[in-house]
Amino acid sequence: TICVSAGMGFALLGNLRRTYIRARSLEQYRMYKMQQTILTSVSELDRLHFPMCLMSVQDFENLGEFMPHETMRDQGRLRFLEMPEIVRQVRDEEGIVFVSHQWVDFDHPDPLGLQYRATVAAVRELQQRGIQCRWIWVDYLSIPQSNRTQQQNAIDTLAVYVAHSSVFLSVAPSCKHANLDSTMDVRSYNGRGWCRLEQLIYLATTISSEAPPAFACTEDGLGPLWGSDAASSEEEALGVIEGSFTCCARGHPGGCRCDKTKIVGVMLGVYWRLLAWQRDLPFPSGRLGNILQQLEGNIDRFFPGTVTYSTENGPDQTVEVFGDLVTSMRELFAAESGILPEKRIRVESPSFLELPSEQDPSIQQEEEGVTRV
Hints:
This is Heterokaryon incompatibility domain-containing protein. It comes from Alexandrium monilatum. The chain has one domain. It is globular, with a radius of gyration of 24 Å. It is an alpha/beta fold. It has a seven-stranded mixed β-sheet, sandwiched between helices. A two-stranded antiparallel ribbon has the order 6-7. The chain is built from 17 helices and eleven strands. Helices cover 48% and strands 12% of the residues.
């Protein structure tokens, strides 16, 4: 009996040990997958899964309305930029306007042409102000509409398109939504999740500039996108997950995946870059510090572990969004900060990087140890 009991005890201990090893292996694998997700998210912000398709402003002004990508492609009116360095060159030498807007029909972005005409007027005014605008990016003509694989590749590259544009133009004239019978204006634009994401990416890209070239076009004309008297606020742009998404408004027909789960990588990548710039830039801007303070003070709000959304016919669904990714990202970033700079993940410097001049008296005094009274 004693031998049998001892044998059973050893068997139980063996089972417990194997269970522990298996659980530890699963946890290690889970941590590995999270780290891979984070590292991929950072690198994806510079990768073109689909070319950046641009139209010349001159051709755009002659269209008369928003036209689909395939029609413009077949007519040879699009310029395909396939390498990030080429995109940056075109941006710096010729100017690229990224147009951010909301669709006012489930099947067409602008059936009445209101947003098209507002865009044309806004770009002309930007040019009159001396802002270089030779090329324009608009989702309907720049993203494939028929081929779903190519369309998703372009959507996955949205962060690159926004980050490599020289001007951000929000277009939100007041009108009625064709299907929802609701008013579409600057308030509804600011509430849209995708529009907030586009703003967040550009906000992060131009974080070193105190006056980034971001504009809002409404029925009242053209004005700054962010600021005390502007159409939008930087804090509002941070609440991407809190924004409204068409998939949610339609009850996720056919069990389609919620768009909120598709933007996790982009948001993690943006957060990492903000942290890296705060750590590495010689003169981080006050805007950068303020944005990071807002993000880190509201992690559960801006990076929720899960979200609950309605379905077309069934009960509400709760799905994981960020889970433990933000915690893991912070740990990974802290570990990376402890190694030599040349061995860290390469992060592009923000656009419109404004460094103090060598003649800046505040810099000279700091170097000389002089305190200004």
